[in-house]
């Protein structure tokens, strides 16, 4: 993980193309999942677009931060948080994904009046979304507890997929120069927006390459304990990083995510809102 991203746009501005603008989770148990995240992050919920089935948007103090949808009973897909990257033209981005060796699994399709979406995977198999905003710009608030702080791709080797993301979304790459760390920070307009972490054989075989969403919390130790109390699991206990303490956890259905208190907030930074 590197620097946590701040708000991508203020006063209702659309997120810059390539910027993570939304995270969404598809589960079998909608009610129990809402109870878990509501208790953990203080989220409340309201109905969202139903094009792919039952779907709710999570709210924090009335501002949208994430989405949770219902998987059909016969679909046994991995339960995972999926980041959506902003695009000015989802159809064109989907074509680029295909041209660069990725796969388009869903869409492009309209999500009512909210926008246009695509669900795709990179050449190594990591799933991500593409979002072309119309009425729904994405997350309304960042930088406070209960909001996404960072998205990081865990893959075998960053060099195998970094060029794919650069071509698909126009990122500037900033590799870490180190014999011990395979990490590339993805930037838009010079600002860090996401990361690619090559972990080699440490990649869990049961998951394969995947995107990991970090959520801001006040105290990662307390959050990890709360995850267990609510029926989830701690996959990697709290450990210090240059950017703040982090724990990797999973919800009761197995969706993996991380909780972090970023250096930005430890220094007293304020949350900023979009819209």
From TrEMBL:
Residues 19-133, 147-262 form the VOC domain. It comes from the Bacteria. It holds the Pfam family Glyoxalase_6. InterPro entries: Anthracycline_SecMetBiosynth, Glyas_Bleomycin-R_OHBP_Dase, Glyoxalase_6, VOC_core. SUPFAM superfamilies: Glyoxalase/Bleomycin resistance protein/Dihydroxybiphenyl dioxygenase. This is VOC family protein.
